[in-house]
Amino acid sequence: MLEANRYKLSAGAPFPARSTDLSMGLPAMSFTDAIRTCLSKYIDFSGRATRPEYWWFYLFTALLTVAAQVIDGTLFGFDTSDAGRHPVTVLVSLALFLPMLAAGWRRMQDTGRPGWYVILPAVAAFLTMFGLMIGVIGFSALDAAGLPEGTLRSLAGVFGAVGLLVAIGAIIALSILKIIWLVSPSEPGANPYGPNPSEVTP
To answer: 49, 56, 88, 118: least buried by Cβ within 10 Å?
Structure first.
């Protein structure tokens, strides 16, 4: 009974200091808990991560990156065109890349989806660059084969514009899908990636 009334408000009592998981009514992971968990699972791509775990760590990463940029700007100037003026930002980005990727991977698995879905926009961007390289090589071969320059330019313009529009559309669509998946609730119960971390287990 005491446990059931743990989070109920009494007359004049303040709200509980700790937030709760909306789906389970359980204490949600705090900001510091999320940081500690994600850093302790630095390259752990197995298991599941709840929404609070992922998004608190995302906020921590964003705040730390902004702080690093301010430090770089204070020490080396705010010239964004010179990458050498941002050593602190580069080090922070490199240090947080793997734990952020791992957290997103586990978050996807928490929704019942394969973890690699988190890199789909990056895969689409890579395929776009690869396609552009193939296109350049292909049209260079056509040019060497003696195709008229006017025809070659027309073909290159059409294929380049259409291909770029399709690629940009795919990247945007996949990025939106990725955000939707990352904010989706945990899959109830256990799934192929492990037990639901929001549920109380014996």
So the answer is: 88
Which residues are 27's β-sheet partners? Answer: 20
Burial class (CB in 10 A: 0-12, 13-18, 19+), 159: middle
Separation CA 159–CA 141 (nearest Å): 15
**Long-range contacts from 189-196, C-beta under 8 angstroms, 24+ separation:** 191/48, 191/109, 191/112, 192/112, 193/46, 193/47, 193/48, 193/106, 193/109, 193/110, 193/112, 193/115, 194/46, 194/47, 194/48, 194/109, 195/48, 196/48, 196/110
**What is the tens place of the pLDDT at every residue in 13-51?**
444 444 444 444 456 789 999 999 999 999 999 999 999
Report the amino acid identity of residue 115: G
Rounded to an integer, what distance in angstroms lies between the CA atom of residue 30 and that of residue 20? 10
List CB contacts of 160: < 8 A, sequence separation 6 or more: 132, 135
Q: How many CA atoms lie within 13 A of 113 on its CB side?
A: 20
